[in-house]
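Q: I'm writing up a methods section and want to include an example of the input and output format. Could you take the sequence below and give the corresponding predicted structure tokens, formatted cleanly so I can copy it straight into the document?
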Amino acid sequence: MKTLGLALILGLVALTAACNTIEGAGRDIKNTGDAISDTARDVKEKL
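A: Here is the clean output for your methods example:
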């Protein structure tokens, strides 16, 4: 019973960490896309 409880707790911790990592990666990807869009807009305005 203790082993099952420990396994559940470790699983929840792993899932929580994965969600935070995925959320951070999503923010990084969004920021990269925003930077590309801004650069494209600047180049278009210069032409």
